[in-house]
Amino acid sequence: MLRKIMTAAFALAVSATASASVINIGGVEFEPSGNNISSGQVFQELNPDGSFTTWGLIDETDYNCVGCELTFVASAAGGANVVGTKVDGGNVSNAYASFSLKVYVDYAENFSAGDSSKSEDGDLWLELAGHSTDLTDLGFAGVMGSFIGDLATINGNPIFLLGRGILDVVGGLAASNFDTDTQFDGSDLQTTVAFPNNSVTGGVVVSEGTGSFSGQSIPEPASIALLGLGLLGFAGAARRRKA
């Protein structure tokens, strides 16, 4: 009988593990081992003072959103938030003290390439803030910042933009699944965006490109706790019957 109980317990544990292999947060399904969020469509407006707004639609290859869409908006202030600037010919690099990135799950599925507000009208799925670190090794001696933006120009015309930064999880439905402190300098996620298509309208650099956020997701703590309690219960029952 004890052997049958333990066999049943093992089968239940395997079943529970299999069912917990896919995480569902707010209708978004993804694997616990998922560590990359990519976006096939990213758009940006960069203002003369250095402030920018970036928005996009997240690829559903690894993050499946049935009947919904995952969108994001990233932004940073200009002015005093630009804590370092390097100029090399027609290339300019700005270091930013802080920036933010918010991911939304939107059941209206109304993403618009020309309207960033449509990328932030859903439920807040993941909220991140820039993780400040020493940027000396990246050419900004003694500067603390969380994001670097590079602009390459020819004859004053923008030909390529690149942005990269590190982030900490601060909120959202999926916060506990991405708050891992496993990335550079103890941050939670790293982000990179690249814009090969650029134009200037009224002094604003309007760009289109791609981007990604890389980190490490973890299973839902509740799922792990419930599975653990179940196994403890089986073990206790087995000991009592044996006694």
Automatic annotation (TrEMBL):
Domain of life, per UniProt, equals Bacteria
Recorded hits in Pfam families, A to Z, give: PEP-CTERM
Q: Which UniProt keywords apply?
A: Signal
Q: Where is the signal peptide?
A: 1-20
Tell me which residues make up the Ice-binding protein C-terminal domain. 217-240
Question: Which InterPro entries does its entry note?
Answer: Ice-binding_C (IPR013424)
Name the chain's protein: PEP-CTERM sorting domain-containing protein
Species per Swiss-Prot/TrEMBL record: Echinimonas agarilytica
